[in-house]
Prior knowledge:
The chain is 49% helix and 22% strand. The protein is built from nine helices and ten strands.
Amino acid sequence: MNDPTIALYRSPPSGATSLAVTGFGRQRVASRLKNRRLPTHAVVMVERGHGWLHSEKAGTIEISGPALFWLPVGTAHGYGPDPGESWDERWALFSGALADEWVRQRLIDETAPLVPLENPRVMRHLFTTLQDEFTEDNPLGLAASAATLYRIVIEAARQASRATASAAADATMAKVAEALEERAFMPVDMAALASEFGLSPATLRRRFATATGLSPKAFQLRLRIDHAKQLLTTSDLTIEAISHAIGIDDAFYFSRLFQDRERCSPSEFRRRHRRA
């Protein structure tokens, strides 16, 4: 970060207000902050760097920028980069009835305050806009900064939701892979397998390939061929017996698949790799 350190503070408007931004800053941080409680809500965006966040509601969480985290009012917390390292951060302080409502609605989640940023460009733009508006120090600028903070909350909630959905998708594909491993040597009806996980066959193929780099059938074939290689090097089973053992009834077809994958026949593989 080449920009100078910035730390701006504004007194909240007199009287009740639904949302007010009361502080903004950006800086390079080289030390950890410990055992602090803020009288307002805060949001911190770590643009680059690695470190940790600890809060009484969420415990200790690893942070790798770009990421954003929330510090609800009154929450005991500490955070900062790894020892001997630094990170670049922007932060904002805010308060008001709307902010409290965000916590109740869990748009700001005290138990899961970290939001990895899959699209940091959008968030950087919003923080830059917030800085420009907050710097004006007039009623219009303060109102605009509150509106931009609202957009930051919504964008963070969207990115958190997408990250959660992606994690759920990864977990589902891990279960599909486990099912394929369990049935590696049996005929597998891919349509039935997709239905088992509440997916269409096309969706299963697409998501499985994204997660593993292989289609479900290619994944199963890799398991079969790998087991065949084990049998070739550790047993005296015939090629026909090995073919049947891995769920392929036609030994000629098995040999052709093996040749295509390993660039040698099963017999040649056995001669090259068997120790005795």
